[in-house]
Amino acid sequence: MNVEHYVPLAARCTLGVGGPARFFVRAQDEATLVEALEWADRGGIPVRVLGSGSNVVIADEGVDGLVVRVMLRGRKVREDGDRVELTVSAGEPWDDVVETAVGRGLSGVECLSGIPGLVGAAPIQNIGAYGQDVSQTIVRVRAYDRIAREVVTLTREECGFGYRDSVFKSVAPDRWVVLDVTFRLAKNGAPTVAYAELERALAEEKTGAPTLVDVRRIVLALRAGKSMVLDPNDPNRRSCGSFFVNPVVSAEELPRIERRVGNVPPMPQFPQPDGQVKLSAAFLIERAGFEKAQRRGPVGISSRHALAVVCHEGAHATDVLSFAREIRDRVRDRFGVTLVLEPVLWGFRGDPML
Question: What are 258-299's pLDDT values in tens digits?
C-alpha cells in the first residue's frame, strides 16, 4: 500500500473545486482497499471513498483524512434461464456497463444510460432516471464492513433502498465500502418506457415498438440536451448534475403547496406507490424566480437545466454552497418545501448549509 500525502482533489471531481486529501491511496485491488481502510481505522483517521467524483462537493480546505480512490475492475456473467446475473466491480464506469447490457439485449438498466460515476456508487445513491431505479435490478452488494472488519454480502432487502437512498447513504454512511454489485437483467426483455418525456421523444420518431438501443440513444440525447452527460466541450460541464433531490411530499401536504405555487403552468406531479407525490425540484427552483444561466459571481445555474449548479472560472466550494443555500431558502420560504442536496459534502466543519 502506497500512502500519498496532500494530493489535490479538485481535478478528480466534476465540479473542479476543493482542496487536497491529507492521505490518498489508489486501490487497484481489494487487498489494497482493505489494508487502507484498516490502516485508517487503527489510526482513527476519517475515510472518504472516491469514485469518479461526480457527486461530491469538496471543501476548499480539503479533506483532513484518507481518501481512497476505488479502481477495482472486473465483470462476471452467470446465465439463469431467461435472466442473466452480472457481477461488476465497484471501479467499473457505470455507463460502460449499461452500454454492454443493451448491446447484449439485456433489459433493466437502459434508462440509466449516461449517468456519470462508477458502479460502486450506484447502490449508495440508488441512481435512477426516466422511470428506472438501479435497485430494481440489484440482487446483492458485496462490501467491506468496517465494523465487523470482514467482507459481507447484503441482499437487496438489506440494502434498504429508497428514493435516491440506501443504508449505505443515510443509515450507516461510513460502515460499508462497496466492492462489487450483482444485477439481474432480462434476456431479450422489452425496454422500460414509463416516463412521459421519454415516451414523447420515442413517439416523435414513429418507428414502432422501441428497442433497448432506441431507448438508450434517446436517453443519451435527452441527457445531453440538459448537460447531464460528461462532455469536455460543454460550458456546463463543471457540475454534479442534479444538485437537489426531487422532493417527495404526502398527499395531505400537496394542496397547500399547490396553492402557494399556483396553477400556471401546472406543477409536475409524480404519484408514488406509497401514496406520496414526487415533485420537480427544477420546476420549484424556476418558479421561485431563478433562471437558467443565472449567475452569482463564479457560480450559477446551468444554461440547460435549472437543477444543476455550475462552476465557472475562479469558483470555490464556498461559492457553490452559498448559492445552493440561496436557492434552498427561497424555495422553502415561498412554497414550504425544503430541498435536500443530492451530492455529498467532504471536509466541511459542521453543517455548511446552516
Answer: 999 998 899 999 999 999 999 999 999 999 999 999 999 999
3-state secondary structure the chain: CCCEEEEECHHHCCCCCCCEEEEEEEECCHHHHHHHHHHHHHCCCCEEEECCCCCEEECCCCEEEEEEEECCCCEEEEEECCEEEEEEECCCEHHHHHHHHHHCCEECCHHHCCCCCEHHHHHHHCCEECCEEHHHCEEEEEEEECCCCEEEEEECHHHCCECCECHHHHHCCCCEEEEEEEEEEEECCCCCCCCHHHHHHHHHHCCCCCCHHHHHHHHHHHHHHCCCCCCCCCCCCCECCCCEECCEECCCCHHHHHHHHCCCCCCCEEECCCCCEEECHHHHHHHCCCCCCCEECCEEECCCCCCCEEECCCCCHHHHHHHHHHHHHHHHHHHCCCCEECCEEECCCCCCCC
* Tens digit of each residue's pLDDT (9 = 90 or more) over 173-183: 999 999 999 99
Give the per-residue pLDDT at 205: 87
Residue 208 pLDDT grade (very low, low, confident, very high; cuts 50, 70, 90): confident
Per the annotation, the verdict on 242 as an active-site residue is yes
Does pLDDT of 3 surpass 80? yes
**Model confidence over 16-32: pLDDT tens digits?**
999 999 999 999 999 99
The CA distance from 196 to 270, in Å, is 10
**Cell numbers that stand for 214 in this block:** 432506441
Share of the chain above pLDDT 90, in %: 97
Mean pLDDT, rounded, for 92-113: 98
Say if residues 177 and 33 touch (Cβ distance below 8 Å): yes
Catalytic residue among 238, 242, 287, 328: 242
Residue 138 to residue 97: CA distance in whole angstroms: 13
Choice among 48, 142, 146, 164 that is catalytic: 164
Considering the candidates 38, 199, 286, 342, report the single residue annotated as catalytic: 342
Residue 164 annotated among the catalytic residues of the structure: yes
